[in-house]
Design a protein that fits this description.
By secondary structure, the protein is an all-alpha fold. The protein has a domain at 294-455. The protein is 88% helix and 0% strand. The chain has 16 helices and no strands. It has helices at 2-27, 32-49, 52-68, 72-88, 92-106, 111-128, 131-147, 151-167, 171-187, 191-208, 211-227, 231-247, 251-268, 271-334, 337-423, 429-455. Helix 6 (111-128) packs antiparallel against helix 7 (131-147) and helix 14 (271-334) packs antiparallel against helix 15 (337-423). The protein is flat. It starts with a helix and ends in a 10-residue tail after the last helix. It catalyses: ATP + protein L-histidine = ADP + protein N-phospho-L-histidine. Keywords: Coiled coil, Membrane, Transmembrane, Transmembrane helix. InterPro entries: HisK_dim/P_dom (IPR003661), HisK_dim/P_sf (IPR036097), TPR-like_helical_dom_sf (IPR011990), TPR_rpt (IPR019734). This is histidine kinase. It comes from Pseudopedobacter beijingensis.
Length: 465
């Protein structure tokens, strides 16, 4: 009866650990703190039960949590601990998963290490028939090649992943593969193939209701349609993607779609609408600039608070030392010399410890101050660069407005005059047509020159040099 109760308790603990691990993994992308808490509870319970398999998996999922908040060193540390246990217990499936995690941690920092871990993942996963893990590793390898702009090799890896995802009927994997392939083909200017694959990804994203993916696919499709002069299609994708980005409160996607809208209006010659979008972009840049300035001020404020705390600590320490002197003086008057010697010896030890503590604290504050100075310098450089860029943009907008009002208005005024002369029969029809043709050509030339100037970074202004 007791044995049966023991098995029931162990089964109950396993279910609880499974639940905690599922919770930690689900929270790893949305709530780091709660994800870590759930992972640590699973690790504590697994350690209590001395279950090596669950201990290793708890460590691995804690690594995933740290990886998702860009704490790479902590993530790798947990992965390596997990790998040690999985290796001792000869759990090939667990080893393969950890290799895949380590590959993702090194993906953008050390390509050679990342490739090595992904190859180990694929080999072990093939032995264990872990097809989803094989496909995921191929996707990650493709991502590294895309990051290094080796688009054709990247697409080859994505097609390998796509084939596996289709066989195991993993629609989410198919969606990611089609989207990555289409994006690579866009980079290679293979617009027809890119549209084909991105539209497949679009249908899957609609079916699965993946709004983030839908928004990203719309952005790439809008770029392709602008490049191929299919402006109505581009407009549809921009509108749909922008609405999704707003629904997701994704400021970066909203910014990207505003840039796409500006490019579309500019290509169509809708300069007023293009200018409105440019103003939105400029406004966003200004907000980012303000946030950078605010961050600098906050850093300065934190630095001042740190210095103030140090000063208060020094004052408190001085008061404490003074109190000790008074107390020692009272003891000298009231007790025997032997007790006095013992107390003085004790005070000396405490003073030495306090001095060591103070020295360490001063060293830490000095290091922090140096780090703050470096950060301040970097932020000031960024602000200077952004300010310069904003000044250039404002100057170009000002010149654009001035150019429109002075250069194009002249030919238009001439056209109005010719129309009035023609209406009053003061000029021959043939001569009037020739003059009007000249005015139209002047306007066309001015518009073409404005367009060239706006796209030519070597020209500082809109006027011809």
């Amino acid at each position: 009866m007791m044995l049966s109760s023991s098995y029931a308790e162990a089964d109950k603990d396993q279910k609880k650990i499974d639940s905690l691990l599922d919770k930690s993994l689900a929270l790893s992308r949305v709530n780091f703190i709660e994800g870590i808490e759930a992972g640590n509870l699973a690790l504590t319970l697994s350690t209590k039960n001395k279950d090596q398999r669950y201990i290793a998996e708890s460590l691995r999922i804690l690594g995933v949590n740290y990886h998702n908040v860009n704490k790479r060193d902590s993530a790798i540390n947990y992965y390596l601990k997990s790998l040690t246990i999985y290796t001792k217990t000869k759990d090939k499936k667990g080893i393969a998963k950890v290799y895949n995690n380590l590959g993702n941690s090194y993906k953008y920092f050390n390509n050679e290490k990342a490739f090595a871990y992904f190859r180990k993942t694929i080999k072990l996963a093939e032995d264990e028939s872990l097809y989803n893990l094989i496909a995921s590793a191929h996707l990650s390898i493709g991502t590294i090649y895309t990051y290094n702009k080796t688009y054709e090799i990247a697409s080859h890896e994505y097609y390998k992943a796509l084939s596996i995802f289709k066989n195991i009927k993993d629609k989410k994997g198919e969606l990611i593969s089609f989207q990555n392939i289409g994006t690579n083909q866009f980079y290679l200017n293979q617009f027809d193939d890119a549209k084909l694959n991105l539209n497949k990804a679009y249908k899957l994203a609609k079916e699965l209701n993946f709004k983030n993916s839908l928004s990203g696919i719309n952005l790439t499709l809008s770029d392709i349609n602008i490049a191929t002069h299919q402006y109505d299609k581009a407009k549809e994708h921009i509108n749909e993607g922008l609405n999704l980005a707003k629904e997701l409160y994704d400021e970066k996607l909203i910014y990207d779609f505003t840039i796409a809208a500006y490019e579309l209006e500019k290509k169509q010659g809708n300069y007023k609408a293009a200018l409105e979008n440019l103003e939105k972009i400029h406004s966003k840049d200004s907000i980012n600039h303000t946030e950078n300035v605010s961050n600098i001020l906050n850093l300065h404020e934190e630095q001042q608070q740190t210095l103030q705390k140090q000063k208060e600590y020094e004052i408190a320490l001085a008061k404490q030392e003074k109190n000790w002197i008074i107390m020692v003086a009272a003891i000298i008057v009231s007790i025997l010399s032997l007790i006095l010697i013992l107390i003085l010896h004790k005070n000396k030890k405490k003073a030495e410890k306090s001095n060591i503590r103070l020295k360490k604290l001063n060293e830490e504050i000095s290091i922090q101050k140096e780090n703050l100075n470096v950060m301040n310098q970097k932020l000031e450089d960024i602000i200077a660069e952004r300010t310069k860029d904003l000044i250039n943009k404002n100057q170009k907008l000002s010149e654009y407005s001035s150019h429109l009002s002075h250069q194009i208005r002249g030919p238009i005024a001439t056209l109005k005059g010719l129309i009035m002369l023609s209406e009053d029969d003061l000029m021959g029809e043939k001569e009037c047509i020739q003059q009007m043709k000249k005015c139209v050509e002047d306007i066309d030339e001015q518009i073409m020159d404005i367009n060239i100037a706006l796209h030519d970074p070597t020209r500082k202004g809109l006027s011809k040099k």
